[in-house]
Model the fold of this input.
Amino acid sequence: MTVESEHRNHTLVVTVENKAGVLARVASLFARRAFNIKSLAVAPTDDEGLSRISIVVDGASAPLEQVVNQLNKLINVVHIQDLQPGHAVERELMLVTVTVEPDHRDDIVEKLDRAGGKVMSVGIDAMMLSLVGAPDRIDAFEDFLRPYGILDLQRTGRVALANLDEPID
Amino acid sequence: MKLDGGQALIRSLELEGVEVMFGLPGGAILPVYDPIIDSSIRHILVRHEQGAGHMAEGYAHATGRPGVAMVTSGPAATNIVTPLCDAYLDSVPMVVITGQVPTGSIGTDAFQECDTTGMTSGITKHNFLVTEAQDIPRTIKEAFHIATTGRPGPVLVDIPKDIVDPRSPNSAMEWSDDVEMDLPGYQPDTSVDPAAIQAAVALMQAAERPVLYIGGGILKARAAEVLRELAELTGFHVVTTLMARGAFPDSHELCLGMPGMHGNFTAVTAMQESDLLIALGSRFDDRVTGRLDGFAVDAKIIHVDIDPAELGKVRRPDVAIQGDCRVAIEAMVELLRVQGVGEADRHAWRSRISGWQERFPLTYEPSVPGEALKPQFVIEKLRDATPDDTIVASGVGQHQMWASQYWTFDHPYTWINSGGLGTMGFSIPAAIGAKAGCPDKTVWAIDGDGCFQMTAQELVTATVENIPIKVALLNNSYLGMVRQWQDMFYDERHSEVFLSKDVPDYKGWAEAMGCFALRVDDPDEVEDAIAQANEVNDRPVVIDFRTEAREKVYPMVASGTTNSDLLVHPSQEDQPR
Done:
């Protein structure tokens, strides 16, 4: 992912009522209005009546203002926070199983250590790793692993909170 | 007080002030139909659920109160999808109640089960699947609140059978007169930003070629009177879109009529040449703008809308005002009274406008005795022989455009049509709904033969329920608007647009449905037929006017062209623009 395209991506943190079918309403609104979702993460909040949907929107697919305004029309959407690129802490978790001959394990583990990741499981010719980080760091680590042979990979989609020195709208 | 869910539902509707509802019972909704027997609400039994939905829309358009329809699950819910979408696109306040299979059967593909809330989430302002009888009163209150506030729209409430069926323990509930709504994500904002009003007024004071571009939002905001104040105070000309016909009187000297694909030349051209468009409750629909990159290129834009998502959706405004149109216009008027309407010289603009009006009036070749009727002629005769505040409901197609063009709408809430969705078959059920809500007014449906065949069965409803509407059927044996496009853009190759010269026998069909019916072939018979129709008030009336199929709607902005390329009537082609 280039820097330029990363800057088009906005993270919307959408607080919704924790009710049946709300995620479907949000997802179908994106589909119907032809807005592209780059990543999506849904989880409960500290208030059991509310859930939080973190959506990374491709700002090139539609004006962000229109995405926000249309989302706001959903009755179950309580609040929307637009986290500007570079003004929020963004994290993503990757689990990845990579083919690796015993000779190469040290290279990978060393690099993983430096990135703050963990080895979760070790097989005869494969390892499962976990890494939490900013999405671009996860991308970079994925690129690094690819030549070894990725057997399986799962990313959570990004979650985010505004920087503490940023005013919350 | 202990009630069952069905009783609670009907009582909740009564508390919302519902006087009339439109519907058709069936398995899943059956328990709710029992308490209707004891209710003050008048239930009108339709012949098809689509009819119930359009009747509720017609009722809402005419009265300003939310229309209510109730139908069963499955195929009934799918049949009412079209009216829901129609109401969504035209911002019509409506509450639709659908039956659903019992809560324990949801998701099992039970008989007459369909995912009604899933299916309608994109075409309703909101919908609810109620799973507890105790939640019914709150949900109904929320449904009416959502349907009627902010930008109005349709709300659907899906009710599983077990929570309303007294034979199921799940239907037990404790009635309370105090129910609180719980809508943390819904706070429509009707107030307007004074700074934005000031900025708008400054643009208005400086404008030399201003046009007030009025949409259906003016009617929803009950703002027709204050709009007239604004127009008269400023002397700015007014165009009323298809959804706003009647919001400003057609016979007013500042009214330029309808803009858009089949708008008056002057309305279209004034917008196109304007230096300031004041969009009030309008949404820059593609039928109004034509090709967008060539639309009113010199115009600055003031856009007032209650829905923030409309501001900048199509055309970026110079001044965006989110809020209620009536509140915004009142604030503009107040400021303009204090500050004056500006020193800008608008004389040249006014004379250009009157020049266009003189050179490009709406026109057609008159009817010749002995030949087929001109549809425009029929509408003019009908207009002249009916009360000033007659409600006109139209279907979709050529007849709709001619009705909008040739009628004189001098009162708000007298024109009812399907603008956004363009639903053929809309007029007869919408007219029935309007008449049910306004029994003292004359209601004419102006319909085409293609449309008539889609929903004519509701004339049975009109007869049986004693709702005496009148139908002017402009019958040219064709799907006329499609034929017009084939004539103009497909080398007159007519593909699947000819219906039939003789079948059905509309007079016989209408009589079979209990209507008084006439057939008119000759221009000389038109006035007499309308006079006869006006005499009949104890049952519906249908007049089958046999009209000329070659007639085209002019002016026309062809698809993909700009409003500057407006095609005028052939007799006006040599006029200088």
